[in-house]
Design brief:
By secondary structure, this protein is an alpha+beta fold. It has one domain: Protein Transport Mog1p, Chain A. Helices cover 24% and strands 40% of the residues. It is built from 3 helices and 10 strands. It starts with a helix and ends with a helix. The relative contact order is 0.20.
């Protein structure tokens, strides 16, 4: 390996490392920008997802949480109400009933952006794949979610985690929402 190639390799390695293991990173979708918490491990984009973050477990929880950010394209993704209903349908009360009465849903404006937030706790009906016919019940979970109106369509932020982990991540989730900019 020539000295010139070795130097380029080192430079590219440093740039790549800085991109992967850096401080909080600004992300974007649908004309919206946000800053993800530094403590959350970025998994990058995936099909249908603008970003995916692993939320470290907290308070004795064994499983980490996940914050997925979805953007389906201009005019795609459905209405706010349809998504709120679908997300509430992914949770049950401990006795197996609907969570509609216990969920907290709020409309607000952040930096001129309309945002609907959802906070719900209970048994999470986890589906390992989007169209999976069976859900795996995960008691003691919480979801913090938001639907932000981007210039090309809604951007969906959905954090699901064991309750203690979600509780510990709530301030970071809210800070991420407060960082939203056009």
């Amino acid at each position: 390996m020539t000295k010139r190639i070795a130097v380029r390799f080192i430079l590219y390695s440093c740039v790549f490392a800085a991109m992967v293991v850096g401080p909080a990173q600004a992300e974007s979708a649908s004309g919206l920008n946000w800053t993800a918490p530094a403590a959350w491990e970025s998994q990058g984009a995936r099909p249908m997802r603008a970003a995916t973050y692993v939320v470290p477990p907290s308070g004795g929880d064994k499983e980490p949480g996940e914050c997925a950010v979805y953007f389906f394209g201009a005019g795609q993704g459905g209405s706010v109400q349809a998504n709120v209903r679908r997300w509430l349908g992914q949770f049950q009360t401990p006795d197996g009933g609907p969570v509609d009465e216990t969920a907290q849903i709020e409309d607000k404006t952040i930096s001129g952006i309309k945002v609907t937030t959802i906070d719900v706790s209970g048994t999470y009906l986890f589906k390992p794949a989007p169209m999976s016919p069976r859900a795996i019940p995960k008691p003691g979970y919480r979801m913090l979610a938001a639907i932000a109106q981007g210039t090309e369509g809604p951007v969906f932020f959905k954090l699901t985690a064991p309750a203690k982990t979600a509780n510990a991540a709530q301030a970071d989730f809210e800070k991420m929402l407060q960082s939203l900019r056009k």
